[in-house]
Design the sequence.
């Protein structure tokens, strides 16, 4: 890889549309989440705000814009005794890494085809490891916010967030390791190409297990329900952003949703075939850039898969109660970690079996690995759940 | 029975050889999303663990008892609505019972039946919204709560049709009820009651075997049988601690002796949040049984008995209690021959049940403290009066 | 041109971060300044085309070491340095002198070898190649490193936990 | 950019770290300083690799990788020791830990 001079235009073409697209999607997702939650809860959800000065409601699609305007004009309150600098920096630090990792998603927008290699960061040899490196920064932002607010709830939320994110990063990375192992590359484009050539990794037993672990850990990483302890409303008000209002709060909100997009995008890249889908052929020699039925089709597939995952996240948020801190930690260390380590072992054997290129052996390996993983998961579950079970009650006449 | 002292598990900080950790003192409330009103808990935390907890209340004190001593007996009936604003019907009933003890008044048959119907509907309202709030405290973003409110709404409509108000019903009178129910009300009630078990089935299927709910509630906030009895806990909370005690069975006030119903209670001496949650779920089914029988047997006739024009009891004392949805709700009245009570005292179940909060929360996690508070089922209007 | 601008910006960030980290009274601010230094250094690694090392730098130093430092500070310093205590050590003057001397010594080899060597124009820092190298010639080092990390983990846990055996014996099980 | 730019920068960073280690009393800040010095050395490794005759051997990144791993272990153990010291002396001030000094 040579370092050829880039023009500013190249960089802008590569990054600005990405920011705009995901900011728009963020607005749409907030609306979608509120609507979906409302449907889950027997409500209507936002349905009034549409085109201003008319009575056109547009199903409340104007709500995000209205919320945004409200957020900007709200008073920005900094508590007395707070660390003003860090209080300001924290939301920015929460947003920037989330935005940054979007560049590492192998999204083949038609307009980036002609830009040179380095502005397409997903072509980086270590794209996946960069992804994890940068998402890890989010933890610091959360801690910063919790510490700088000088509020006990914020501090509790910050500490919870750090403990949770550090714990869940391990199963997250370990399940991504499996894909890296199978492909033999950290390059996002190559991972996608491999899946287009062979099969989506979610369709194999170890891939499915890894995907489930990854998705659960991703929920914890992005503080989504049922792992939303750092911002647990019924316990510690709003956790680390209790003392945030106005635009800073909006930045946190934006960062959280962008992080959701980013982590679902990584799940799509690693397990769900990236931009692969009907009408898209991945080109082996052109490193992940695809031949498409029409320009941008693979990007559309990619975004559709992201939204499928986000829909699941919304669904979970509407249905599940929250875990407790010790249970959360126990789940990460006693269930997810052993299972993902075992999964690496299983995937290693399966890879060797596949190298033999014998269909029967492959099938047998798949069956065995499925049985092993299923047994391990249910065994670990039995070990961890303790004496918790439904009870019988007596009646007095 | 062992000594009735409320001893809490001692929590010792590992100060000598461990890390010197400083306690975090958090004042939860009075403005906190899950303190169920203006209630405050001074919590001392060691990390996430509750080391000490001091409930602070009185933010909603409205001088209810003193007010009632300065007005006629009947005039404080609307104030009883505001005690536990979820269950105005049972509050009314307890007060009416106390007044009826002071002056012997016959309550007509139909009124007795309607009283039972109203009380059991109130129990459904209370338990269903309590369960909703409880799951909400567990962190389930309102979905179970809104399902519960959908059902509550139907019963509220019935209350509104009967009494004109959805929550502050003010429906009971000494010797009967204020007015008869409108035409068709009983049929509508039958419809609601018949559909209620379907909803309960759905709710139980969704919640009672949910792994997260099980692990969040079992073994959390245990209240032993001895402590429950010695602290004077009543209602579902007492039965969840393994004591079979229901005033509807013990006193058989009203006409409860005519109905066939069972009282669910636990056998083991655990008494955790799951038990309290489940006892309420099971009680709703029994309430439905009572309602079905009452709606089947309800006679016609008068709605209010012969009461004196001016309610002026002879000097006497009376204490009457009912099995409110939250526990034993009692009214103690001393009459001195004037139209005003000399002393008027409420025994609020919420307050008394709240007294064991500290014992249940110690050495639990902070998240559990919220859940335990939710499982006690308090209404601050009744705690502070 | 781009490279020169990037180098100067990143080196200013790195030096600034390092200076603030060692001079700041408030330790939490110090940690975040240290993280800025790590980030600047990671940018410099990228500039030198060592992208994997840059990623590892962010992952290990900012992600792990930073958090560890924050926790250690919260466990040890109740007031995070916001008091009037003297922050410099007794021998600070001689420390500065030695530092200046070391700086001169470090500069000497650089000054002696003028003109500087040319950079290889195109290098291919393949992560795959790095992985092969780690697994083939350096596998023993890698294993020893893994052992070291495990030992460090256990050692850290035991050292930080302290002696708590008598407490457990007391509890009636 | 030449190799010398990087070398001078690394020397500067190293000296900043050295200054911190020499002039601060707080043990944690000293740990910061040690980290800064280690990183300066890493920068040198990478710079030498980039400007070497045969970069394909990847000696620089490999050594840096090992150095980072060792540094991570060092921080963990160092902080654990710090906590142990804190528990014993109730301070992390290096000058007050003078039990080995002759009275």
Sequence:
């Amino acid at each position: 890889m040579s370092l050829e001079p880039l023009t500013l235009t190249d960089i802008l073409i590569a990054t600005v549309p990405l920011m705009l697209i995901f900011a728009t999607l963020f607005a749409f997702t907030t609306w979608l989440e509120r609507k979906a939650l409302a449907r889950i809860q027997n409500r209507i959800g936002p349905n009034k705000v549409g085109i201003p000065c008319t009575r056109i409601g547009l199903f409340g699609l104007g709500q995000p814009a209205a919320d945004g305007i409200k957020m900007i004009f709200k008073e920005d309150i900094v508590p007395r005794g707070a660390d003003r600098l860090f209080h300001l920096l924290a939301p920015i630090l929460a947003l920037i890494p989330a935005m940054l990792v979007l560049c590492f998603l192998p999204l083949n927008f038609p307009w980036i085809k002609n830009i040179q290699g380095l502005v397409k960061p997903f072509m980086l040899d270590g794209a996946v490891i960069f992804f994890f490196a940068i998402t890890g920064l989010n933890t610091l932002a959360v801690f910063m916010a919790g510490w700088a607010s000088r509020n006990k709830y914020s501090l509790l939320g910050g500490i919870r967030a750090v403990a949770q994110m550090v714990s869940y990063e391990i199963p997250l990375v370990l399940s991504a390791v499996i894909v890296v192992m199978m492909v033999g590359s950290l390059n996002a484009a190559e991972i996608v190409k491999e899946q287009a050539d062979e099969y989506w990794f979610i369709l194999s037993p170890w891939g499915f297990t890894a995907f489930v672990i990854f998705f659960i850990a991703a929920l914890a990483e992005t503080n989504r329900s049922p792992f939303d302890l750092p911002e647990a409303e019924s316990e510690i008000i709003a956790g680390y952003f209790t003392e945030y209002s106005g635009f800073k709060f909006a930045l946190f909100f934006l960062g959280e949703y962008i992080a959701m997009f980013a982590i679902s995008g990584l799940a799509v890249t690693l397990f769900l075939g990236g931009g692969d889908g009907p009408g898209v052929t991945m080109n082996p020699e052109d490193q992940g850039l695809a031949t498409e039925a029409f320009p941008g089709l693979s990007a559309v597939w990619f975004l559709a898969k992201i939204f499928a995952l986000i829909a699941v996240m919304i669904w979970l948020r509407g249905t599940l109660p929250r875990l407790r801190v010790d249970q959360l930690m126990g789940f990460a260390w006693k269930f997810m970690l052993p299972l993902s380590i075992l999964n690496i072992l299983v995937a290693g054997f399966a890879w060797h079996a596949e190298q033999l290129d014998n269909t029967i052996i492959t099938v047998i390996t798949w069956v065995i690995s499925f049985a092993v993983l299923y047994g391990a998961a249910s065994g670990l579950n039995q070990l961890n759940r303790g004496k918790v079970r439904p009870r019988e009650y007596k009646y007095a006449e | 029975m062992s000594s009735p002292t409320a001893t809490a598990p001692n929590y010792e900080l590992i100060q000598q050889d461990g890390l010197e950790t400083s306690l975090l003192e958090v004042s939860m409330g009075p403005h906190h999303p899950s303190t169920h009103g203006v209630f405050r808990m001074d919590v001392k935390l060691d990390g996430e663990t509750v080391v000490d907890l001091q409930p602070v209340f009185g933010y909603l004190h409205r001088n209810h008892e003193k007010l009632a001593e300065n007005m006629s007996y009947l005039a404080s009936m609307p104030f009883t609505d505001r005690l536990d604003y979820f269950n105005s019907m049972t509050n009314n009933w307890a007060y009416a019972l106390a007044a009826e003890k002071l002056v012997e008044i016959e309550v007509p048959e139909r009124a007795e039946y309607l009283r039972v119907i109203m009380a059991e509907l109130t129990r459904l309202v209370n338990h269903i919204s309590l369960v909703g709030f409880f799951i909400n405290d567990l962190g389930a973003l309102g979905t179970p709560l809104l399902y519960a409110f959908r059902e509550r709404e139907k019963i509220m409509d019935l209350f509104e049709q009967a009494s004109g108000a959805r929550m502050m019903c003010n429906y009971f009178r000494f010797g009967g009820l204020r007015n008869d129910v409108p035409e068709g009300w009983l049929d509508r009630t039958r419809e609601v009651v018949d559909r209620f078990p379907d909803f309960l089935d759905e709710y139980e299927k969704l919640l009672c075997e949910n792994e997260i709910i099980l692990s969040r509630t079992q073994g959390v906030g245990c209240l032993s049988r001895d402590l429950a009895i010695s602290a004077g806990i009543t209602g579902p909370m007492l039965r969840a601690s393994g004591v079979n005690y229901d005033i509807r069975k013990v006193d058989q006030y009203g006409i409860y002796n005519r109905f066939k119903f069972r009282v669910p209670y636990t056998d083991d001496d655990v008494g955790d949040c799951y038990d309290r949650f489940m006892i309420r779920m099971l009680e709703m089914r029994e309430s439905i049984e009572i309602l079905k029988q009452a709606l089947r047997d309800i006679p016609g006739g008068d709605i209010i008995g012969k009461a004196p024009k001016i309610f002026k009891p002879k000097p006497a004392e009376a204490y009457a209690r009912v099995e409110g949805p939250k526990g034993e709700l009692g009214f103690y009245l001393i009459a001195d021959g004037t139209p005003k009570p000399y002393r008027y005292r409420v025994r609020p179940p919420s307050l008394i049940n709240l007294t064991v909060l500290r014992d249940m929360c110690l050495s639990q996690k902070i998240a559990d403290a919220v859940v335990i508070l939710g499982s006690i089922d308090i209404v601050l209007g009744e705690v502070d009066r | 041109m781009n490279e020169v601008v990037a180098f100067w910006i990143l080196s200013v960030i790195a030096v600034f971060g390092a200076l603030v980290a060692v001079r700041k009274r408030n330790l939490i601010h110090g940690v975040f300044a240290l993280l800025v230094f790590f980030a600047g250094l990671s940018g410099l690694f990228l500039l030198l085309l060592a992208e994997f090392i840059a990623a590892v730098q962010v992952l290990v130093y900012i992600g792990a070491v930073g958090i560890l430092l924050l926790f250690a500070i919260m466990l040890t310093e109740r007031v995070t340095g916001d008091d009037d205590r003297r922050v410099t050590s007794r021998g600070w003057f001689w420390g500065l002198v030695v530092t200046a001397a070391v700086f001169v010594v470090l500069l000497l080899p650089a000054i002696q070898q003028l003109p500087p060597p040319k950079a290889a124009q195109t290098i291919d820092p393949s992560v795959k190649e790095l992985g092969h190298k780690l697994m083939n010639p350096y596998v023993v080092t890698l294993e020893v490193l893994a052992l070291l990390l495990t030992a460090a983990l256990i050692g850290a846990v035991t050292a930080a936990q302290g002696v708590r055996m008598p407490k457990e014996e007391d509890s009636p099980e | 950019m030449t190799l010398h730019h990087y070398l001078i920068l690394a020397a500067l960073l190293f000296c900043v770290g050295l200054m911190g280690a020499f002039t601060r009393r707080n043990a944690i800040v000293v740990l910061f300083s040690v980290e800064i010095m280690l990183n300066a050395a890493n920068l040198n490794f990478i710079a030498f690799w980039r400007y070497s005759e045969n970069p394909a051997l990847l000696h620089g990144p490999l050594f840096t990788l090992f150095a980072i791993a060792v540094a991570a272990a060092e921080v963990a153990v160092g902080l654990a020791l710090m906590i142990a010291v804190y528990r014993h002396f109730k301070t992390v001030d290096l000058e007050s830990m003078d039990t080995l000094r002759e009275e």
Residues 78-385 of chain A form one domain. Chain A touches chain C through 27 residues (CB under 8 Å). The CA atoms of residues 224 and 382 of chain A lie 25 Å apart. The mean pLDDT of chain A is 82.
